Amino acid sequence: MSFPVLDLAFEVDADLAPELLSAAGPLADPLAGAELWHDRLGDWLEQLADELGEPLRAPSYSLGLRLVGDTAIAELNGVWRHQQGPTDVLAFAAQDGAALDGVPPMPLLLDFDDGDDDAEEGVEPLELGDIVISLDTAARQAEEHGHGLERELRFLASHGLLHLLGWDHPDQASLERMLERQERLLA
Asked: Which residue segments constitute the domains of the chain, with CATH numbers given?
């Protein structure tokens, strides 16, 4: 499979603390971050291409990535997971279990043209869903793990992407496999 085309919607909440934005570097910059995340996520999709089931193999993808604070992610966590408090990353997969079991996904009605000649003419991107990362929680975890916030953000984004692609970790063994795959993506 050739390098997939990626349509990325990237957003950074305006109310995030300036010191956190600074610590996150260009990955939290609304302009530079969009390009950096686009390239990183596209690279990961290319690396994962041979591992994807047929319903998830596509010449182009669409997904959203949003950096928020603990308050925003706690609200999402409560509404969607019925869990109290903030979490580090949430992934809202657009492809449901049926798509992951071999049923073709519903085509999107998007006007997709990024000017890339590598995209197949008339083929709409496969919508993967959205990844939401708490910059507050990521900063705390980066400090706990003794590495920078940029690395933690990449780690959480890779985790979210794997969830969008159907990975899950209901037990320790599957969590270890998922974490190992994330480390290979980050290498």
From this structure: 5-186 (3.40.390.30)
